[in-house]
Amino acid sequence: MSEYQHRARKRFGQNFLHDAGVIHRILRAIHALPGDRLVEIGPGQGALTEGLLASGARLDVVELDLDLIPILAHQFGNTPGFTLHQGDALKFDFASLGSEPQGLRVVGNLPYNISTPLIFHLLDHAHLFRDMHFMLQKEVVERLAATPGGGDWGRLSIMVQYHCQVEHLFNVGSGAFKPAPKVDSAIVRLVPHAELPHPAKDHKLLERVVREAFNQRRKTLRNTLKALLDSEAIEAAGVDGSLRPEQLDLAAFVRLADRLSEQSTAHSAQ
Predict the structure, then answer these.
(1) pLDDT at position 93 over 60
(2) Number of neighbours of residue 187 by Cβ within 10 angstroms
């Protein structure tokens, strides 16, 4: 192996994209323009990086693997607008790149083992992002884009759709990567809402209600939420307590969280 070659590492969940057709299709979906401020998470060997820089946009990349840093520095270090950050995206302070609302556009081919926690980390800073384009395991994208009533609808769907509009753009077969993963992937676009369609009084209580509800998703809401809300409180929120959590839409979960918020406020006032 030469100085600038690198084998994919299992512990980082690395699968490097090499299919030129897929790369072109992803770049077309992102449609980066001069003046854009892009952040690429996990650039790997730079399959997308080159095309993103060719747009004339400014690009910050966040890479965890120390062995990839010299490869990326060698390849792109002299390109105007390119900044390389070695670090863990789960701990990265995205606000350090600019605090302007909707000023950043995020791109990433996310390893399965960090995709869900990383998405939740990014949602904490959703106001900073104009949009996010991710390559994820196909089943994760199906959960992100799910609608109420099916098995894919759950905590991830609800909390992401609370903050963002979700578009499942297209699927990518395993042959587009080296080494080929055992699962198919998909590209998703997340666009943070300019105004939340169903704002909760307390976002943390919404997270808590959703988490409790889906901890035992086969049970009725009356059972899964009994530690938080009794049957009367559930009914007062306009929700049928005999339903299972997957049968409720986002607005219904927000009503339950708001009921819990009112309950908590009443208790603390006593």
Answers:
(1) yes
(2) 22
